Amino acid sequence: MAKTARSSFVCQNCGAVASRWMGKCASCGEWNSIVEEADSTPMPGSGMSKSAKGRIVVLETLTHPGDDKITRLATGLAELDRVTGGGIVPGSALLIGGEPGIGKSTLLLQLAAAFAKAGRRAVYFTGEEAAAQVRLRADRLGLAKAPLALASETNVSNILATLADGPHADLVVIDSIQTLWADALEAAPGTVSQVRAATQSLVRYAKAQGSALLLVGHVTKDGQIAGPKVIEHMVDTVLYFEGDRGHPYRILRAAKNRFGATDEIGVFEMAADGLREVANPSELFLGDRLARAPGSAVFAGVEGTRPILVEIQALVVPSGLGTPRRAVVGWDSNRLSMLLAVIDARCGVSFAQHDVYLNVAGGLRIAEPAADLAAAAALLSSISGVALDPDRVTFGEISLSGAVRPAGHMLTRLKEAKKLGFKQAVIPAAGDLDGGQVKLKLARIDHVKGLAGVLGL
Q: Is-contact 422 440, C-beta < 8 A?
């Protein structure tokens, strides 16, 4: 009697394996995420389980002689080059994720077209659209004449055969990895086993042939890339495309980068003809600022090596609720709660009977602790009803004791403020700063108590 193939039950959210079907995953707690998948391991006695004898691998050293230095490939998009660390490394695999409709396919189509126009061979495989639909979007973006190779295919074997048959591809784009499926697995496209197998096959091809591989990944409701976490370990770079559909700006961040830093960002603007690079994002984030409104403060931040000036808006109004509201957009809500407690305890200004709303203008999300002082200035300005000077920037971290701690890259922040026409700055008292190179009027404070006096509140 022939033995049937074994199967396992795999969670499509976290990749945990169970012996039987369950309504709720015991690992991550997600409901209705368990799917039965066929086991790809050969059955005992099938004649396929015997492993072949391995071969001896030639060992090398870090000082291997030769002129095989890897040269990065310029993408033609300066903002993308900034995030990747100076260009895409040949043979590397990049995974880009983002919300639906944020512009992932648009960005990769523009990238592939730029590669093709530069004389390199770029191949674009789409599994979510027909080739005619991609051509329609390329025509709208003005890329119809780019010599880009295009195909609509979801079978991994067919994709690898196509790449092996044609000339060497410098760039391979897969949109998206969740639509691919492998013949050897009896599972639906998008399941954990299919996504893992497809990624492994494509990454192996990219490493062997020296082609740069770009994969598009769907995201879950929590904003994480869908599928097993092992996919992010397989690739060399993981990029997240962020933004708010209500704003035209898009932020490209690197969550993982084996060939560069992970703290750089690229800023794009969504327009009718596609994504445009934003060389100076500070001017855009401050462009429509109402300078004389209470509760508005300008924060001089740094993302990677790039200084960015952004407006922090606060609105403090009397509350008619038993528990006042705390609403935050673009900042950590726990950080706001801590900041309100520090201002209450150290400055004697209570927000217990007020609703507090805090917003980072332009759709940017700030994770830097140096934004504490600017947020505190906006909150104090709003509760007092006094507008701050429009030509002043603020930055500094506030500790639980109320002390203002120094921030990194202070000189870089101040130079960016001076370039944009600001004349004053409220900064921490500690921290090295070459005053001879700064043409701003500086107010240095060491405790949050001195903030109200400096701001004239």
A: yes
The bridge status of strand 249-257 relative to strand 265-271 is: antiparallel
- Inter-CA distances, 80 with 115, 225, 235, Å: 13, 20, 17
Domain-wise residue ranges, the chain = 7-38, 78-279, 284-455
Does domain 78-279 bear CATH number 3.40.50.2300? no
Model-level pTM greater than 0.85? no
Continuous H helices in 85-125: 104-117
- Contact indicator for 165, 17 with CB cutoff of 8 Å: no
Tens-place pLDDT, residues 167-195:
999 999 999 898 999 988 878 888 888 88
Q: Using CA atoms, how far apart are residues 337 and 355, in angstroms rounded to an integer? A: 12
Residue 47 above 70 pLDDT?
no
Domain 284-455 is in which class?
A: alpha beta
pLDDT at 64 over 80: no
Q: What number of other Cβ atoms are within 10 A of residue 223's Cβ?
A: 11
Q: Which amino acid is at 106?
A: T
Task: Give how far Cα 403 sits from Cα of 163, 347, 399, 406, 445, Å.
Answer: 60, 11, 5, 10, 9
* Cis check: omega of the bond before 176, within 30 degrees of 0: yes
Encoding tokens for residue 311?
A: 């407006």
Q: Which tokens in the block code for residue 224? A: 């994480």
Instruction: Compute the distance between CA of residue 449 and CA of residue 49 in angstroms, rounded to an integer.
Output: 72
> Rounded to a whole number, what is the distance in angstroms from the first to the last CA of the chain?
87
- Partners of residue 179 on adjacent β-strands: none
Beta strand 171-175 with 122-126 is parallel
